[in-house]
Design brief:
Elements (H helix, E strand, L loop, with lengths): L2 H9 L4 H19 L5 H18 L8 H20 L7 H7 L14 H17 L2 H11 L5 H8 L3 H21 L5
Helix pairs in contact: 1-2, 2-3, 2-4, 3-4, 8-9
Length: about 180
């Protein structure tokens, strides 16, 4: 079913919308949640909660790109669940990947409203569009999907050292780009 028809079903408050969303993007949602959460039960719970979240936000929202919207909801819920699950267990694999980026972004206290956060996100998206496809994919897999350096090295046929060096170069370029864009570091 076409995405616009699925959105119309949500606007009509038809339960068929969730069924169609699940049929079309269920595997994608499971993949996004599964990249963050190691427990299949948590993944299933997260995906189901995401469907409810989409149900509660459409309407009034009407996303232009439904799979991106659903994936964002799933990812946010998976991150929330991961933080909850690892509250006592610091240095989880995802914390490590985020720690690697902390010097590229403003501290939480300096981004005080959504306009500034959106500006920073837009700048990151513009930066990512300047990268070669494999560098962009590697960056997103590491810092959005939280893939391990080992997995990236295996998939790209490179050494861990090579992957770390490329990621380090990309982070330096990102810092320079954000600085030029006026994003305070």
């Amino acid at each position: 079913m076409d995405d616009s028809k699925i959105i119309e079903l949500f606007k009509e408050r038809s339960e068929q919308a969730i069924i169609e969303l699940s049929n079309k993007y269920g595997k994608l949602c499971e993949s996004v949640a599964g990249a963050i959460l190691p427990d299949p039960a948590d993944v299933e719970e997260c995906v189901n909660d995401a469907y409810l979240g989409v149900w509660n936000t459409i309407p009034p929202k009407e996303p232009e790109y439904l799979p991106g919207y659903v994936c964002k909801v799933v990812r946010n819920l998976a991150m929330k669940k991961l933080r909850f699950n690892s509250a006592r267990k610091r240095n989880s694999f995802f914390d490590v990947s985020l720690d690697e980026l902390e010097d590229c972004f403003p501290t939480a206290g300096s981004v005080e409203d959504e306009a500034e956060a959106k500006n920073a996100a837009d700048a990151v998206n513009r930066f990512l569009s300047t990268l070669r496809k494999d560098d962009r994919t590697m960056f997103i897999r590491r810092y959005w999907n939280a893939d391990t350096v080992e997995a990236l090295a295996r998939d790209y046929g490179k050494t861990k050292h090579n992957i770390n060096a490329r990621l380090s170069r990309i982070k330096k370029e990102l810092k320079k780009y954000l600085s030029k864009e006026g994003i305070m570091l």
